[in-house]
Automatic annotation (TrEMBL):
InterPro entries: Asp23 (IPR005531). This is Asp23/Gls24 family envelope stress response protein. Belongs to the asp23 family. It comes from the Bacteria. Residues 19-33 have a biased composition (Polar residues). Residues 9-18 have a biased composition (Low complexity).
Amino acid sequence: MSEKSPERSTSSTSTTTSAQGAASPSALVTSQGRTSIADSVVAKIAGLAAKEVTGVHALGGGAARAIGSIRERIPGGRTNHSQGVGVEVGEREAAVDIDLIAEYGVAIADLAAGVRRNVIASVERMTGLKVTEVNIDVNDVHLPQEDDADDADAEPAPSRVQ
């Protein structure tokens, strides 16, 4: 009989714990129903919040930016605001991964702190999810002279036929 008692107390403890977890208040899970938020929604919010921070030149790595620029040139194409952003969304929490390119001269540690702060504030305010972490990968540094090279490439080539 003593063997059965610990099993019962363990199961009642886990039942109590899960009952408390279900009873904890949340804006997304209420007695009237449950709200789920798609990963793409959280990724778009995080992407826009990251771009708002001064010193962020662009989001995404080289391949993602190349595909994004092609997509934008297609008639009717839209800007992908979640480019360079990965998220994991649960019922009450979210984790965010961001790939970005920093402007030259910006202190990267300060930039990362600013992006992290803005992403957490925006996602938590707009979704009600608790952001557990924001991981930031700085893939490149944008140099001002790169803009000059892009402008020179943008000039139309003279026509070869008349």
